[in-house]
Specification:
A hairpin with a 2-residue loop joins strand 2 and strand 3. The protein is rod-shaped. Helix 1 crosses helix 6 and helix 2 packs across helix 3. The protein has a five-stranded mixed β-sheet. The chain has a two-stranded antiparallel sheet with strand order 2-3. It is built from eight helices and seven strands. 28% of the residues lie in helices and 48% in strands.
Length: 252
Amino acid sequence: MDFKEKLICLRKQSGLSQENLGDKIGVTRQTVSKWELGETTPDMDKLIQLAELFGITIDELVGKEDCPQENGSLCMRQYTGHYEYKSKKCIGGVPLIHINVGTGTYKAKGIIAIGNFSKGIISIGLFSMGLISLGVFSLGLLAFGAMTLGLILAAGAISAGAIAFGGIAVGIVACGGLAVGMYALGGCAIASQIAAGGYASAAIAIGDKTSGETVFNIHAAGQEQAIKEAILSKFPGTAKILVDIFSKVSAK
């Protein structure tokens, strides 16, 4: 095991984050990260401090001798439980790619970020935030996951966004089992303007069961033109694509 691998192993065995370790020996988290990535190595003073901190010799620290803490598979298990990669190429001081995953609160920040907690232009993780975000909990312009918040598009079991798709969807345009918005389509659709679904409630409602000022039975045929006229009469600024979608949901 070389120095960078041993440092990761010893740090994790001691329950220290990169920032915690840096604080103890007077360097930044970024410096520790560079040591663990093999980009730089510590000077002799820092090697002495590290060896004293972990209770081993310098030879054991740099890999010339096996250290007792390795104890066979224990060290490797802790080492392989975490993986981090940070590309040398940066844009505006931010790594092009940062991957930081494992058991714990590992954070990734990059143009492309993959981590338990991730932030980037393209972000993937348990908790993710980015222009394009994918995660169990995700926030972004375009967000996908179990629980999502998207400024433009959100898709997930529970989603909120300008355009939202999900089991429960809330948005200007919402589609889902339960859809709430200005325009809503779903099993239960509730909207301020137009709704269509099994149950629909809106100023213009198209459904099996309806509630609203102007209602249409979704099972009735030959009412496409009537729905179009109703929409354009009450809401003349409605986008053509929405007029077409809602007018075609009823039976032919």
